[in-house]
Amino acid sequence: MPHTAAQIIIPDDFPSVISGTPALQTMQAHGNVTVHTSRPETQDELVERIREAHTVVNIRAYCKFTAAVLQACPHLQHLAIWGTGTDNVDLAAAQAAGIVVTNTPNTATDSVAEQGLALLLAVARKVPSLDAQVKSGTWVRGTLTQVCGKTLGILGTGAIGLRMAQLGRGIGMSVLAWSFHPNLAAAQHIGFHYVPTMVDVLREADVVSLHLRSTPDTERIIGAQEFALMKPTALFINTARGQLVDQQALYKALRDGKIAGAGLDVFTQEPIAPDDPLLTLPNVVLSPHTAGTTPEALMNGLNLCAANVVAFLQGQVQNRVV
User: Fold this and answer.
1) Catalytic residue list contains 270
2) pTM listed for this prediction
């Protein structure tokens, strides 16, 4: 441990995932760790919690590390993100301030892709509504959607998109994809093909599954125009980020039968507002941004996050710097 122990602050462990874990013990062996197990309600409260930090470990994306927040923390040298997404961090401001930002990519790949598959099947087979009907004493039978033999369209072929393609192939779907960064070797290995544009995916796929990163360039990349291109029988799955989608346009497409259904783990506002019109639709299945919360994924991510913290404190080269 350094002569003066580093101040490691976790401002946002709510709901709590890191307390009592080996990852926390690892960090405690290398610095003075403070864990806050309530949500900071304001940006000022976030600053108050992390003002003296050498290292901040960010657990929840509801904390926004804006330029103003980062500038208010003169001792901050390392922002360690638990998870892949860094859309809650002003990366340019961090770089200007000399703050190293690390993340934990590919630790929840299987977990998130499985949730995508679960949402796909739940929507196609109307599992939530059928379950509710049977439990309420009604026995209403009707036509369901078979996905074997249909086409799965993948938008974004990072680790999760590729795993989703594998799962789609595994249940008998043909798979096509579009990505900013095509992985032709993976396509050959898994057995899918790339199409030239996103429009091709939207027009051809029976299920469209979204796996792009959230950046200024991809904000609302799926809107009314894109939903209008999809088949009226198509299903839309999003386990990536709510900001990628015009949620009002999605609601209207579902309401008006422009597309047949959707399975969503992410939303523009989280938690979703209790009066959000999406909650009124029978053809949408929702989960509370929980795709990555299996014990395996949690431990993988937390342990990697702790390893990033220790490596930075020991002056080692970081291969997970954003």
Assistant:
1) yes
2) 0.86
What's 6-107+295-313's CATH class?
alpha beta
User: In angstroms, rounded to a whole number, what is the distance separating the alpha carbons of residues 133 and 244?
Assistant: 33
C-alpha span between 208 and 196 (Å, rounded)? 16
Which of 38, 8, 37 is closest to 23 using CA atoms? 8
Which member of 49, 60, 78, 241 is catalytic? 241
Compute the CA torsion angle 220, 250, 194, 290 (nearest 10 deg): 80
Roughly what angle, to the nearest 10 degrees, separates helices 109-124 and 127-135? Answer: 60
Instruction: Indicate whether 2 pLDDT > 50.
Output: no
Whether 296 is catalytic: no
Give the start-to-end residue ranges of the domains of the chain: 6-107+295-313, 109-286
- Does position 1 have pLDDT exceeding 60, yes or no? no
Closest CA to 167 of 100, 223, 232, 121: 121
* 289 given a catalytic annotation: yes
Tens digit of each residue's pLDDT (9 = 90 or more) over 104-145: 999 999 999 999 999 999 999 999 999 999 999 999 999 999
Average pLDDT over residues 32-60: 97
Q: How many residues does the chain have?
A: 322
Candidate list 54, 270, 296, 320, residue with the active-site label = 270
The domain covering 109-286 belongs, at the CATH homologous superfamily level, to NAD(P)-binding Rossmann-like Domain (3.40.50.720)
Nearest to 155 by CA among 110, 116, 208, 117: 208
